[in-house]
Design a protein that fits this description.
The protein contains 20 helices and 22 strands. By secondary structure, it is an alpha+beta fold. A hairpin with a 6-residue loop joins strand 16 and strand 17. The two termini are about 50 Å apart.
Length: about 625
Amino acid sequence: MYDVVVVGAGHAGCEAALAAARMGCKTLLLSMNLDNIALMPCNPSIGGPAKGHVVREIDALGGEMARNIDRTFIQIRMLNTGKGPAVQALRAQADKKLYSLSMKHTLERQPDLYLKQGLVEAIGTAHPESGNGRPTTLWVKTNSAQVYQGRTVVLTTGTSLAGRIIVGDTSYQAGRAGEFAAVGLSHSLRSLGFTLGRLKTGTPARLDARTVDFSKTVIQPGSEMPLHFSFASNGVEPWRFPPANPVYPQAAATSWRRQLPCYLVYTNPQTHQIIRSNLHRAPLFNGSIEGIGPRYCPSIEDKIVRFPHKEAHPLFLEPEGWETGEVYVQGGNTSLPEDVQLEMLRSIPALEKVEMVRAGYAIEYDYVPPWQTSASLESKVVPSLFLAGQINGTTGYEEAAGQGLVAGINAASKVKGTPPLVLTRDQSYIGVMIDDLVTRDLVEPYRLLTSRAEYRLLLRQDNADLRLTPLGHRLGLIDDERYRQLAARQEAIDKEIARLERTFVTPPGETAGVRGAELLRRQEVTFQRLVDFGAAPRDLDPQVMEQVEVSLKYHGYIEKQKRDVQRMHRLEGSRLPPDIDYDALVGLRYEACHKLKVFRPTTLGQASRIDGVTPADMAILMVHLERRRRGR
């Protein structure tokens, strides 16, 4: 008997289990293979636009992903440095084996958390009372007939639900390469009343680094400047400083940490002709694949068909770790037959003699369309059952981890009888993602993008701790010392902004003085320039400098977004009764009525974001709510 049972130990499951245990709940984490905890079956990387924002938000709330990648990365970079702060994001290459091992060590050392191996094949509602007299809600059963009871259950099944791998003409049941598919669990969910859908994702070939001609590639080095995902990374040491692997050239130590480069190559017209000549053998085009794939991460054969005018597509050769010669081909997802994959790769100059270690493949799997899930990630169909990760129709380690953290927090909150955590769109990218999932029709695997956030200037990766760490502290996931450090940094930011607002500075080459705040708002002026000519203190924390500069330079835009947030909060504050009869609302269009009955939004704000609900429909809802308040 457990307070929280988490099924699946991928990125969502790890965050869910750690959050629940850290909140004081007796937690069980079930994995079909304990050697594959936090596995990276696709890209061995963490972060990128929007995804990197989520990782920093996970850290700010007290999750583990940021600290784990900081311990185990082989390269880190800041992306979009030539653009504004809203879209700048960290991205790191992981040593995939060390990442998994490091997370397993963290789980094994967490009090109140128990790890067990087992393939869950069924789930159901339990008897009102368990043998020890405590109320129970759910049970899960493994393929070895073991039954575990939990007051709450979190399903983080990844691609295992009735998973099917496809390579060319070959297909077979599997959750991932080398793992079983959870066929029984799909049947069990349907028997509980869930509607399931079918999605598809894929992965590229892995190459033998010894057969790559790196002299014909463009080297992509790591950052010379120290970078970390975790706001507390001054205390996170690398797993170890490994020796250089002679397989990879240019594997030199930077001034602060040893890193491995990545390598850029391009496809060419010969590559594209090989793919076009074999489209009749491509499962994506010959009808072998039924599920819908991610639009923003298409296979290489899909790119060639969709963009016939392009003569070249970039492919990044990414090492999978310090002590392995396997190389991941970023941008080369494919389910073409193995012989075609090899021919295609060898048409690229740097890969003329390449050998594949593993072929790329596509995988189809079942998911639970998230209109059956609330914003707390609790199922609407079965109370006390929470869903997180790819089971909700998302793709990506970071999206899964963000959902897992929220699901674990809310499963623990349900056990403790406290209100659920519901993150809003102006509060976090995690909130944007979950709100999108529970209010919009999902027609493809969901990937988070900065363009999906209407308040992205407020949701920068650099201020995630200021936005969310107080919340993590209230939940018990952030310790007092870290919270005190945050409070001190916020105080230092406020003091420096106030000082610059009242202090006049005469810039070099000018005769008239200007307030420091106004000077910093100039496009060409950075905080470091103020330091250089003595207008700002040199001993400020770099994080304080960054926040002061962004806050002042983008003050007008930030204030405008805050006003937009206030208007939206008025809609979010208008609750929709759970028993509202949409069929009885005169004038409500048929499509809007149908969508509102399916999604059952809890606020006017949620209703306004449902596809098919127009401003006219919203006006009818507002009139109805006003009449209910007046008792008419």
